[in-house]
Specification:
The protein has a single domain, classed as Glutaredoxin. Helices cover 32% and strands 19% of the residues. The protein contains four helices and five strands, in the order αβαβαβββα. It has a three-stranded mixed beta sheet. A two-stranded antiparallel sheet has the order 4-5. Strand 1, helix 2 and strand 2 form a beta-alpha-beta unit. Helix 2 runs parallel beside helix 4. The longest helix is centred in the last third of the chain and has 13 residues. The N and C termini lie far apart (56 Å).
Length: 145
């Protein structure tokens, strides 16, 4: 009978290995077809100007996007970052419909860390720009009803 004890453990382990990304939770009041944007950030001075630029851009999309913000210094933000696989020092990560990896103009873009030209001496800039974010949001919102 002891060999049967391993089956529940094995089944649980296999289920956990099935996917590396947690599904993106959608609030019940989000209309179907709305683009879901999750912003995970450190609420520290070097990040704040970038957050202001991102928020200004997101405001242009009105009800076509549902935006959730998560401060990494809170338990909720830390838990979501872990669920999304963010394990390194992360000043900013932006997920659009559950992904932060996109192709813009034939090049790979990841909405992670600072935009190009806005990195700090401590943290390198990412491979994206605010214009890249706008391009992805334009495309995503054009596909929503």
């Amino acid at each position: 009978m002891k060999r049967y004890v391993l089956w529940p453990v094995l089944a649980t382990w296999l289920a956990a290995c099935g996917t590396s990304a947690a599904p993106t939770p959608v609030a019940p009041d989000v209309k179907p077809g709305t683009v879901v944007v999750e912003v995970i950030y450190l609420n520290h001075p070097p990040v704040r100007p970038v957050l202001t630029a991102v928020d200004t851009l997101l405001a242009n999309y009105g009800e076509r996007v549902s935006v959730a913000r998560y401060d990494l210094d809170t338990p909720e933000g830390a838990d979501l970052a872990k669920a999304k696989g963010l394990t390194e020092h992360t000043p900013l990560a932006i997920f659009i419909n559950g992904s932060m990896d996109f192709t813009v103009g034939g090049r790979a873009v990841q909405f992670y860390s600072f935009p190009q030209g806005q990195g700090t001496g401590m943290v390198a800039e990412g491979v994206w720009t605010i214009e890249d974010l706008q391009d992805v949001l334009d495309e995503a919102t054009s596909q929503s009803p």
